[in-house]
Specification:
Two copies of one chain form a homodimer.
Chain A lengths: L4 E3 L5 E9 L1 H5 L8 E2 L10 H19 L9 E6 L5 H8 L5 E3 L6 H14 L5 E8 L1 H8 L15 E2 L2 E8 L6 E6 L14 H20 L8 E4 L3 H14 L8 E3 H5 L10 E2 L1 H17 L5 E9 L3 H5 L6 E9 L1
Parallel strand pairs in A: 2-3, 4-5, 4-6, 7-12, 10-11, 10-13
Antiparallel strand pairs in A: 1-9, 2-8, 6-8, 9-14, 13-14
Helix pairs in contact in A: 2-3, 6-7
Amino acid sequence: MGKHTIYFSNKPRIISTFTIAGPKESESNFGKHIHKLIYDDRFGEDTFEKAECKMLSYAIENVIKSANISRDDIDALVSGDLLNQIISASFAARDFDIPYIGIYNACSTFSEGFAISASLVDGGYMKKIVTATGSHFATAERQYRYPLELGCTRPPQAQWTVTGAGACVIADSGDYPKIVSATFGKVVDFGITDANNMGAAMAPAACDTLACLFKDTNTKPSDYDLILTGDLGALGSRLVKELVKEKGYDMDNVHADCGEMIYNIEEEKYQGGSGAGCSAVVFGSYIYDKLKKKELNKIIFMATGALLSPVSTQQGESIPCVAHAVVLES
Amino acid sequence: MGKHTIYFSNKPRIISTFTIAGPKESESNFGKHIHKLIYDDRFGEDTFEKAECKMLSYAIENVIKSANISRDDIDALVSGDLLNQIISASFAARDFDIPYIGIYNACSTFSEGFAISASLVDGGYMKKIVTATGSHFATAERQYRYPLELGCTRPPQAQWTVTGAGACVIADSGDYPKIVSATFGKVVDFGITDANNMGAAMAPAACDTLACLFKDTNTKPSDYDLILTGDLGALGSRLVKELVKEKGYDMDNVHADCGEMIYNIEEEKYQGGSGAGCSAVVFGSYIYDKLKKKELNKIIFMATGALLSPVSTQQGESIPCVAHAVVLES
């Protein structure tokens, strides 16, 4: 057994998914794959933060419904988000009478949730877990960068935080896509200090986890139908492919990035989508559907996270990053 | 098997602990139990945030040393703290070449870490995990409440955030204190909106988890040598004992609270200590020592967390809380 990869002998199943997203995501070509489209950034609430929480709550409620089970069947909610003190997850958890395990690894939270949930189910501790995450452009922008009202110009390397949420039910049995293994990532920091250049900051962490996974499992990129990264964006995706190539792995033909898929990339969104909701929405809709239909049979799903805070940036720190990967089979 | 309690058949061991704390903690009667005392709030760094991170890093490094193992033996670091984006944990993780699982449940993070780590070890996925958390009075105060420079008067129900960190190595074998079960808590919110009254906010969540644990495991308070809560403080401790009594359980004679133990309670610290570092420091020093010497044989350790953020408070929200419990045997 490799150092960083853990294997699930009972192969926990992803028995249902639910995704919800905002106006910009709904209007893109990808919009048609998303379960619930909302055309009001506030989702009927008086603040963006409450809207973010409501989206997450909505996704959790509906993923339970779509699995045809009741709340009482769920043993835990494993959830996190980008807001300070992960309030979206915590306040969403308040709506449900379910044990709550709060996690945070920035935009890699969704695959971290997969790995933790799969361990708890595979180990026989729990039967059904909901794992969920989300993000909101307006809350992330004002928390991490500038108030929207300032109208700051976005640099060309910037990504656009996805307004959306995704949830999955992970269960111990059934004829559904399976979680085969998980590779927890280490924190990697190449000294990037630009909070607008997340793709470049995250690429080395993504490369590190992928290289571990290939080595641990004795596989190569061509053994997979798809290697799906979370939100590296166009620039970060180019970088990770180059970095992985330097380690002897060519994944040019099997790689896709949720951040590159979710928008019709045009000037405003520059490098594509980002945020904890980005990978949750893309995986939970289009990709999960392809796994269920067996159009994809074996994939790596790896969300990547930039672990910065405005305080650490102001104190001159660079951006440490992490990426957690899971291997899924149809 | 009860709904909220999971059982560890291989009983993961806590093979070592390390604690570090600041000037106020060092000067209290409890100080003599703490492994490393520091008399400089900044720990040689130029900001309090960097000092908090350095304490956590120091605890992680030394808990590995005191277990007589090397970093390479550690399969994962499960860690979180109170700062936005849990930067202390993430930046501490950067110092170690170890897979990093970031978690956040405010001051209940330490027992959440126990429960997740024990699951990963008991399930056979990992052999040795470090779980660690910390907090700092100065960083918490300015993040959650007011800048210290304002010199705000503290209300009598206030607690004092512990400047300190604690770390444990959880392993699959050895003659050490064992983790027998874990009870993940639900989010409970009784509508408290005062960010200075954490004890009252957290008591109902603490009661809920304890009642689940007693019911799930068919035990009563007198079956334990100690029921140790994390940081309810003097007021919160009184409340939880009353709430638990209403449910038919009398724990007056077996309850203690880390927040009540860590300071010589006097006017300035009012209700006692709080913060993710509070339970980590008290458990990792005095309590762990008593378990090792078998002066305590069976205890419940339950850290409690208030999941508020300044943003949620400003937006008129009350304080949702959570408490995760583990049962430990000597």
